Amino acid sequence: MTDFSALSEEIKRLIKSAGPMPVWRYMELCLNHPDYGYYVSRDPLGREGDFTTSPEISQMFGELLGLWSASVWTAAGEPSTLRLVEIGPGRGTMMADALRALRVLPPLYQALSVHLVEINPVLREKQKATLAGIRNVHWHTDFAEVPDGPAVILANEYFDVLPIHQAVKRETGWHERVVEISGSGALVFGVAPDPIPRFDVLLPPLVRMAPVGAVFEWRPDAEMMRIAARVRDQGGAALIIDYGHVRSDVGDTFQAIARHSFADPLQSPGRADLTAHVDFQALARAAEDVGARTHGPVTQGEFLKRLGIETRAVSLMAKATPQVSEDISGALKRLTGEGRGAMGSMFKVLGVSDPAITSLVALSDDARHAAEGQPA
Ligand SMILES: C[S@@+](CC[C@H](N)C(=O)[O-])C[C@H]1O[C@@H](n2cnc3c(N)ncnc32)[C@H](O)[C@@H]1O
């Protein structure tokens, strides 16, 4: 049994020796510490776990992403080898559903080599079980290990677990938010004493005008740039799906999720999932900065409807028992609907492609305008 209180002690030891720790470093240790990190030690998914993702809600999600991948293969000129890559593949459910849908296209199915980028050994075993019997599947701990060639790269709920920085606006400027130790020995939030030099000039105009007390979050651009540079140079496209906002803005979205409820992010390091919303404007800018083309973002509800999820639901329901039919209808509402518990407008979808691919299915500009009409 992993001793997570050891991580709390380790974090306090580091703070005592090196001073308050940026939120970014705290999040990284909680998620990826080699012995006690949340994503190094467990399967967090499903009813018995901490959260449920779209592929675990319904097979329709992965099937439609499979068909979307086929449309990229066509747009890329039907290359004889296509790398189908998933970063952060959870239990392998989405890939299994995508591959089942792709079996109806033998020329593409024969051209596929499947690559799963996963750091979690527990989930890697589950992926192996889910994908047992499928040929040409390879695992990697780093995206850079995926062999060259045109690729479709899928990432659902991956970017939200990448660590964020936070800065708090004070009269004196923007100060990095840190984790420190209170007088009673607990982990608490604080701010670095000195402002971040020349930080204002890096900020989007909307954020520069924020009032004192506002919190701004950002992630390093490196991961998006690596993915974008890959499709720019080798062809194909990436699809990023996550919860977040279409415009960069202020707001504290750093949160812990355990047992399907929000928890205090400082309470039990390594025991809860730590996440923050994804800034899709920043992701798109990072991809465009390296010369890739971006498509969208659109809302998940719009994206799935454009791919035909309603028709797929009707055809599955036609063959189902009344109970299963009700489950399919519930899944459809959850994946595409709005409001509490629904993912249709909270989740966004961004395409990033080789600049030679001028449009991607279901991610056209009119859909982008629909997404911009949604609250950020
Ligand atoms: C929130 S889960 C989403 C799982 C899956 N995509 C789904 O939708 O069910 C995040 C996934 O990313 C993996 N992960 C976290 N950090 C990672 C990293 N640095 N590199 C690769 N995978 C990572 C986790 O182990 C897990 O598979």
From TrEMBL:
Keywords from the UniProt entry: Methyltransferase, Transferase
Keyword Methyltransferase annotated: yes
Gene3D superfamilies the record matches: 3.40.50.12710
Molecular-function annotations in GO: methyltransferase activity
Gene Ontology BP terms: methylation
Cited Pfam families: Methyltransf_28
This protein's name: Class I SAM-dependent methyltransferase
Annotated source species: Rhodopseudomonas telluris
